[in-house]
Amino acid sequence: MQHAPIPPNESERLAALRRYDILDTPAEADFDDFTRLASQICGTPIATITLIDTARQWFKSNIGMGVSETPRDTSFCGRTILGSEILEVPNALEDERFRDSPLVTGDPNVRFYAGAPLVTPDGQNIGALCVLDRTPHHLTPEQREMLILLSRQVVHLLELRLAGRRIKWLNENLEHLVAKRTEELVDSEERFRQFAEQSSEVFWFVGLNPERILYVSPAVEKIWDLPAKRFYQDPRAWVTSIHADDQERVLHAYATVLSGQSARYETEYRVIRSDDSMRWVLASGTPIRDADGKIIRIGGMAKDITERKRAEESNVRSLALLRATLDSTADGILTIAADRQILSFNETFVKMWRIGPDLLAANNDTLAIRCVLDQLKTPEQFLAKVHHLYNHPLEESFDVLDFKDGRVFERFSRPMLVEGKPVGRVWSFRDVTERKKIEAQFMRAQRMESIGTLAGGIAHDLNNILAPIMMSIDILKSTSDDPQATKILETIEVSAKRGADIVGQVLSFARGMAGERIEVQPRHLLKDLEKIIKDTFPKDVRLEFSIPNDTWIIWGDPTQMHQILLNLCVNARDAMPNGGNLTVCVENCVLDQQYAAMNIQAKPGHYVQISVTDSGTGMPPEVLEKIFEPFFTTKELNKGTGLGLSTVMAIVKGHNGIINVYSEPGKGTTFKVYLPAMETSSGGLEEQLEATGLPRGNGETLLVVDDEVSILTITSQTLLAFGYQVLTATDGAHALAIYAKHEKEIAAVLTDMMMPVMDGPATIHALVRMNPAVKIIAASGLNANGNVAKASGAGVKYFLTKPYTAGTLLKTLRTMLDDA
Hints:
alpha+beta
């Protein structure tokens, strides 16, 4: 800290100070009133009347300063006496003259100082009237003027005190001096009144009863929308104008000051104006005491802070809106500071990662990362990427995360920048599980098309090679008399024909199966198939056929139909090396819009469904993806060409049918072939379904949960057409919110198992916790068997395998609702 220089007139200044004989005298109420008034007017907690002695500054009066004197060389007032104007220090920490002062670095931690010099009538600066605050501050021009005015009054008081000692020899002039002093006080009061009446802030004085207004400045009219005289005429005008919810708090604050429990109060409250509009007010008050220290009134100020409050409320609303927006996004968002502290996260992130919000809020970075790593297939790669990004804060990053439960997330990470400098990182996660499945299906279709094109080209060339060989064999056989040569030619002929047959199969896959189309009764085909199977299959393969007599007729090639059934049954036999059950079922079915919405290959209409089910080894997902590709086989070398199922696919597509396969390792496989029946159906959805005599609802309310809009729409239309009320949700979190609101109305829940944000098993477990008696139908796609199994642990008894028809849905629903 820089020490203040000694004034050039130091000896004259000290002489003037000594003349008043005031140093180290007891406190006096008159001086205390000035410090309180200065504190009140300037809005500061500390005010002093300071006199600068040779090596110290001594406080004749002080509010908020816990000592009676401090060293002169560390003081603010030591510089105030160097001039005739107010010395104002808005922020002492930013002023090199004072920032190292013990008064700044220690108690009372001064940040703001303003001092008006105490100038004696002969021009000597003996001290200062000063106000201080522990926070940075600024005086208004009016406050500066009032502080100067009050400093003059302090000097006047010193002069009066000096005059008291000369009372004897000035006794004859006493009346004159009193009159002059009175005139000065009146003048001082008038100056204060003028200042108060010109200020936009309200100055007031209240008696011991808060309903007794002693003085209120005219600015009250702008805030309260009442004439100032109203407050004098109606003792309760001030109290009754305060908002009912704020009255008790304001009166309590007043009472604490009045009782001496608090040296000052400051509070915000609402004022109800005469037109019922509302304004916010910030009011402060300080007790005023008499010479004996007894509180006689409270004075203070009030100012309109309505615009500030509106801005604060707007900011709060904006933050709430931003929070709601982030919580509503499908992406999980997490922000982390540069020191790895968790700053924020949205609800989607919590649901996606299944991490307790308490754990995140506790800022336990280690445990949160552990929870994340436990869910991933390759946690080491993810952890290495995280550490790399922490060490390279300006990098952006993107990668794909594979979960142990089959989910797939896309992860984006970008730096948070403030003025171009990284202060943290934003992580966003997007559940792309369903999208990846669709992409895989699309790539599979493209691969099949490419393979078909390639196979067609190869088969065409092979045909060109085999044709002359087969023709040459016939010529050689007719010209050869050698039995050995003839036998060799016959072997070559058999091999060439076998090659030609394989080429024919490849061409069938590549170009589709044409064949001759006639009316085919599936019942006759299956009877022939049954005889072949019983004659050729091992006895440990138990065969079961289910063929209704009213099976619809198919328009197709009987040879190709026979080939489909035989290929599927042979595959089923090979999947049961130790025997098992082979079941072949036929049924008439109507594939409606409900089914078509779940299977893009299907068209609504009448079909004959042929299903071939074995109890064999089953297939994992990676095998299921390739079974219809030509030359793909899981059989041993020389035990399969890999063309059987690709041929089946080609035949089914050539007949405008569809084929689905359901399989799980160790639980067998089911192939379902849908072939269009000759009978057709016309009319809308409701007419088609009504014709089947399906069960109707009785006005029950159902909650349908599916993230596919097309499925959600057609399912809702179906249920509405059959007498149900429907509520819909696009994910599990949305479903829980709806169920919580309509639990008493909802009779049953139909939920998909694979959904973003919150999947089916998690949704089912949450619903059961909310209501153990809730009735749930779980729906799963081709790869959802594992999830269905998980859900069964929550007590779910009814399942639908996608794609399913409206009839299947309605029958299952009716069965569940009627189940007591």
